[in-house]
UniProtKB/TrEMBL annotation, chain A:
Subcellular location: Gas vesicle
UniProt entry keywords in alphabetical sequence: Gas vesicle
Pfam families cross-referenced by the UniProt entry: GvpL_GvpF
One BP term from GO: gas vesicle organization
Chief subcellular location: other
Family membership: Belongs to the gas vesicle GvpF/GvpL family.
Organism from which the protein derives: Actinacidiphila bryophytorum
Origin: domain of life: Bacteria
Protein name according to UniProt: Gas vesicle synthesis protein GvpL/GvpF
GO cellular component: gas vesicle
UniProtKB/TrEMBL annotation, chain B:
UniProt similarity note: Belongs to the gas vesicle GvpA family.
Keyword flag Repeat: no
Subcellular location: Gas vesicle shell
HAMAP family for this protein: Gas_vesicle_A (MF_00576)
Source superkingdom: Bacteria
Protein name in UniProt: Gas vesicle protein A
Record function comment: Gas vesicles are hollow, gas filled proteinaceous nanostructures found in some microorganisms. During planktonic growth they allow positioning of the organism at a favorable depth for light or nutrient acquisition. GvpA forms the protein shell.
GO CC, alphabetical: gas vesicle shell; vesicle membrane
Assembly and interaction partners: The gas vesicle shell is 2 nm thick and consists of a single layer of this protein. It forms helical ribs nearly perpendicular to the long axis of the vesicle.
Residue segments, region Disordered: 84-148
Source organism (scientific name): Actinacidiphila bryophytorum
InterPro entries assigned: Gas-vesicle_GvpA-like, Gas_vesicle_GvpA, GvpA, GvpA-like_CS
Keywords of the record: Gas vesicle
GO MF entry, a single one: structural molecule activity
Length: 242, 148
């Protein structure tokens, strides 16, 4: 039976009995102990796909375990041949996993995303000579090409404005965070960044974000998500299994 | 309309899936020795997952907003853009923000615990043929029942 892997934690961290894992019906979640470490696993469902419910289940299990102790979350979709392969891997790089767990212990991830907003377009055009010029040109001699150039310039201006606002919020959060990591490129976002934050600073981060996001609402749509499992801060110190 | 205005202050929390999908699918530990499902396969699948999750979240936001609107007329006779157009004092940006934060609340409520309720909720809004226009950049293309 192949094994679905949710993450790696310390041996003493409990896995909630009622956790509903990936699968249809939802799979049971159990712990495979290997020395001081443990893998959070379940039976891999047949026909594993990135379905909404499966991804949600993956996230739910990780949130539940991370609430109980330090956790290195695996990316969605990691399947192992059998239990022996999992425990062998944990034993083989026990030091690496242990130190990676220390890095995230007592901390969580907050994720900041920012996208442009269209509010205050008139102000944007007024403040940008190039946009003004293109707008006048477009009015004088309307045409496809000038419309495209104007539209591109406006979009770029909106993105620049949103990125500037996002940097302000990111700076406020960086001051409260232990580490910062860029997130993957996401279509439509001008900033995607994750912050490793001590559990007792989450409220301060949220407050800092709320006040900044409100002030900057006419420049960017800002979204702070978390506390999350430490997806972006769980890399092993040394490349494993090279 | 004050109902919507009240919701603007809410922020999405950990229960939302849409804004963390990139992390769940692109971050987190991966060890080659472990992999049987190839990463290439997941790369293809996650494009699909993004479309499904994005559209379902959008439906949930619309549905929640529609449920909160106090209408004199039967709501089934209106389309979603008309509802937003009729919102009057709430500007487009306001509605958009509300839509987003309400979506976050919905996800919180659905929770991270109950997959079946989740599924039930997923399907109802999906029947509505909502136009994407009024939600602006938050709306991705609609996707059918691939979610199943």
């Amino acid at each position: 039976m192949s094994i679905y892997l949710y993450g790696v934690t310390r041996a003493e961290v409990p896995v909630p009995r009622d956790a509903r894992g990936v699968g249809d019906p939802p799979g049971k979640v159990r712990k495979l102990v290997a020395g001081d470490l443990a893998a959070v696993v379940g039976d891999a469902p047949e026909g594993l796909r990135a379905r909404r419910r499966y991804v949600q289940a993956h996230q739910s299990v990780l949130l539940a375990v991370a609430a109980a102790g330090p956790l290195l979350p695996t990316r969605f979709g990691v399947v192992v041949a059998d239990e022996a392969a999992v425990t062998a891997r944990l034993h083989a790089d026990a030091a690496g996993y242990t130190s990676a767990l220390e890095r995230v212990a007592g901390r969580c991830e907050l994720n900041l995303k920012a996208s442009p907003v269209e509010a205050g377009l008139a102000d944007l055009v007024r403040s940008d000579p190039r946009l003004q010029r293109l707008q006048q040109e477009s009015r004088r001699r309307p045409g496809y090409d000038v419309s495209i150039r104007l539209g591109e310039a406006v979009m770029a201006g909106l993105r620049r404005r949103a990125a500037g606002a996002a940097q302000q919020v990111a700076a406020a959060l960086t001051a409260l965070a232990d580490e910062v990591a860029p997130g993957p490129d996401v279509p439509g976002c001008v900033l995607n960044a994750s912050f490793l934050v001590a559990a007792d600073r989450v409220a301060a981060c949220r407050a800092a974000f709320d006040s900044a996001a409100e002030k900057l609402a006419d420049r960017a749509e800002l979204r702070l998500t978390g506390p999350l499992p430490c997806y972006s801060f769980s890399g092993l110190p040394a490349p494993a299994g090279a | 309309m004050t109902v919507i205005a009240d919701e603007v202050v809410c922020a999405p929390r950990a229960g939302t899936l849409y804004d963390v999908l990139d992390l769940i699918l692109d971050r987190g530990i991966v060890i080659d020795v472990f992999l049987r499902v190839s990463l290439v396969g997941i790369e293809i699948l996650k494009v699909d997952a993004r479309i499904v999750v994005a559209s379902v979240d959008t439906y949930l936001r619309f549905a929640e907003i529609c449920n909160r609107l106090d209408l004199d007329h039967d709501s089934t006779s209106r389309t979603v853009p008309e509802l937003f157009g009729g919102a009057g004092s709430v500007g487009r940006a306001g509605a958009k923000k509300a839509a987003h934060s309400v979506g976050g609340k919905v996800k919180d409520a659905l929770g991270i615990s109950d997959g079946h309720d989740d599924e039930e909720e997923d399907r109802k809004p999906a029947r509505r043929r909502s136009s994407a226009k009024s939600s602006g950049s938050k709306t991705r293309s609609r996707h059918r029942d691939d979610e199943g």
